[in-house]
Structures
1.
Amino acid sequence: MIQQRFVQMASRGQQKPQAQQQATELASSLMSGLRADRQSIFGSDLLRTFILIALGMALIALYLKGKYKQQMILLGGLLVLSSFDLLAVGRRYFNEESL
């Protein structure tokens, strides 16, 4: 649907087959590029999420088993993990130029 709308906008209502073909090729190229970018972002986010969940679960398991007694160690570790996640995602949206 998006691709069809893009073809309509790119061809600007022209009925020439050449314009339609160019618009279709451009739309296909853009859509495949967007899919590849989104798959790459999804894959990296998924891996980071699994690692953060595993580290968080390890911190909680160690606390529950009594390996360390202070709650501050648990809270500090979880704070570091969540801060890392926020900074990693934020860095994608805010780069040096936007600050």
Note: The helical segments are 2-11, 17-65, 71-93.
2.
Amino acid sequence: MTPANRQRMRDVIGRAVRTGLFPGGAGPHAHSHGTNDSGVDTLPTAAIPGTASVAPPAAGLPPRERFRAALEAVAGVVHEASSIEQAAFIVAGLAERLGTRAILGWTDEAMALPGMTAALEARGLSVVDPEIPQDGDARAPRLAELAALPLGLTGADAGLAETGSIVLATGAGRSRMASLLVPVHVAVLRVDRLVDSVSMLLATRGDLVAAGSNLVAITGPSRTADIEHTLSRGVHGPGEVHVILLEA
């Protein structure tokens, strides 16, 4: 993709975010019922059985408590820390349970957590650089080495109290593998980055749309039920998601 095409794509996404996702927004293709741009008949989501939104758990509570309740409702785990040292202690406890001394992680700068790597190293842990060589002969062994790591550590650009989701923008120093490749993902979320909903996030942090190569909202462990409708966790991503709420 050329720089011009990339910028054009970002402009289109930016316009869609500003006009189509907020209450009162009027995007160019807004309609409540009829046909979509391909001529396929559509219905509002709430009119399709089993797809209507449900009330968020613990509605009415402060964002911090709502976030905890929503994440725990989908089998996520919430920890509390008042300092980077305490957050590192929690990560070290997870590493000990998993029997590893190596963590696939973001840089301190990417996590906005100065001193986290040093705090982990003081506990005998190392943060592995997820850089993958482009050379064919070296690429496969490196991927196998990284795939063997059981624990990934990232920061979080935001947390959504309504759904218990964490929002991550990936890019330089912010590898996607740290939240996708590992069986256990732990994210450190500063409490001051909690917002009510995705609409509020985009209204206040629209810069995140273009902040990296990828922007995702992660809501609890990976899960799928496409085989005989049997729910399985950890098939397409981490089977455990831990979020450390860090006091700002």
Note: Helices lie at 3-20, 63-73, 84-98, 108-111, 116-121, 136-147, 177-180, 198-204.
